[in-house]
Amino acid sequence: MKKNICKISEFFLILNFFTAFLPAYSAEEILGKKNFELLKQNGKIQANEFKPKEAKFSLLSDTELSDKIAEELSNNEGELPSLIGENIYLIPKENIDLNEASVILRSVSKMEGMQYYSNGEKKWATLYHDAYCIAGPQDRTRIDDKIEGSANGLIQYCLLNDNSLGKTNYEVSYFQTENEISMKLVNTTPVYYKFIKAVKPENVHINLVMTVCDDYVVVYMNVKANFFSLGVLEKRMQKSLLNRLDAIYTWFSKQISE
Whole-prediction pTM value? Predict the structure, then answer.
């Protein structure tokens, strides 16, 4: 009897050892079969809504950190946003490491020099001429990136000197689990387009969630913004903010693949 109990115990110990290294998520399950197949073909799915009648994220997956974004949206009372933009990307897992990705997302200073396609200039240009962490939401004293340990629960502040939108301060908050890392940027100072105050503080929200799955990594991004609506300015703001999703993803995906 004791011998059998020992064998059963050994079996469960071995089972626990192997299951501990299995990914918690399947890309097909969290994306749905249709989106999974589309992403395998195209690498990206995009969904944008301008002046939506309802604030919702249609591409958001069902994962722990994605649920935090959904919960925050449902708790957000007030006027509807001017723009909701979503991008979701699928990349082969290969040698991508979650902890390395965590360090990259916290390395704000490495965003300096990031490239993007400028619709106004009709050419590739530098998106962030300056990018670094600062002492507080209104204090632009430069400090080091916080890259030690886990990102879970971390908050840091940064200044991004944007090619079109000028210098803006952001609060950057992070969560990290065994299989996911998330980053959220919220502007703590106004966003200007040229000389026009286009966005009030706390009215640009950019989220990134990276989920490590079986053979793939899923990267979900969104932007939710409320800005001054006036003809050409409105269209420029829409394009500018949506372009930043692709620019941040391209920078991030190159960094994690190196």
Answer: 0.88
